[in-house]
Amino acid sequence: MITDVNRHSAPPSCSHTKRQVISDALHIQQASPMPNVAYFTATVTQAGLSPREAATMAYDRLASWLADGSWQVVHERVFGSLSSRSAILESRSEFPHLKHPAAKGPLTYIQGQPLWGDGLAGIQVQAVRLPNPKDVWDITDGTVSWGKGWRRSGVTYLLMQNIHGHSTSDEHSRLSRFDETMDMFDRAHQLLRQHGAAYTDVVRTWIYLSKILDWYGEFNEARNRKYQEFGLMPRQMDSAPPTEFGLPASTGIQGDNPLRAAAVMDVLAMTAETGKRPQIERLGNVRQKDAFRYGAAFCRGTVIRDPELCQFQISGTAAIDEQGVSLYPDNAEGQIQRTLDNLESLMEPVGAGFSKVCSATVFLKRAEDAAIYRQILRDRGLENLPAVCMVADICRSELLFELDAQAAWSAC
Fold this sequence. Notes:
The protein is α+β, with helices and mostly antiparallel strands. It contains seven helices and 18 strands. It has helices spanning 51-67, 85-92, 96-99, 177-194, 212-229, 332-347, 370-379; strands at residues 18-23, 26-34, 37-44, 72-80, 108-110, 120-128, 136-141, 144-152, 155-164, 202-209, 249-254, 263-272, 279-283, 301-305, 309-317, 357-364, 387-391, 401-410. The two termini are 28 Å apart.
């Protein structure tokens, strides 16, 4: 059992959080907001471990945790350099509990460049433990596994991974990035329909774009077009009130992938039996302009309240103000402080806060700003935040920092 060996007095990052410093270079956290839902975060904090060593140590802990009860993995992401992918996945394959059918499923591998340039940045896993193992199943399209579905308290969750519109490795036959994006959303919509849902049931997306700064506007144009087609956005966006939007929370960030696709995404959707549909609230932030008002089709966060658990899916957040303007150009400290203030402003009205965060991802444009980020966390008492940190471009060239998160707590 992982025990808390952290010496700081900051509150735990999630109810029933267990944290272990495996070495100076690897920290492990397991957060369980309720007995049958848990999050596992392995964070490589500095150079010194080879990709294989870091992955072996992390997956050893994960395999031990999965063996302690009937846990089934429903979401797994690995952030590391593409050059290290083979070594990391070879290490993963050595653990029998990860070969068990309960743990099998798609894996999202994103080039989350470690601060030191090459290797493993971190691993994020979500798992559930249900009385009937058949309440977790594969989301498939023919022979291809695209994710996991599970059912708890009358609510069905569908979490699909590595959705993309890339269809060929032939450079001369490839679709444009715009058309790839359109196909990516169409594929997600088709998979959802095959499994009894629709895109209007989506509450969260994580989207990783290759060379984001080259075509983020083009990506937004494609997403807007598809979201209007799916019924998530009114035709007259400028005059429509927020209640007319059905937009999910989302992260849109730099991230290359082994498929060489222009973009890949993970998607979380929810459906429910009649009379058991969870309360879903899509939020704005008083400290930030709604993203859809300046062309980016997502809400600032989505709160989901089902009979047993409150979840808060928190979109990628940066130092953007009430007018949609980027703040503190070339000032990492100012941007990080403002981002954390924005997050606090978003979470507080729904009874959340950093103490409820079970999993987070931190994106720094410049590796040298990591020391500033860590000092700010210490100053705010947030050094236990379960976050994987990596180097990546943000959606605007002047932005230096972004953070997304999942918060959860029981007894709603």
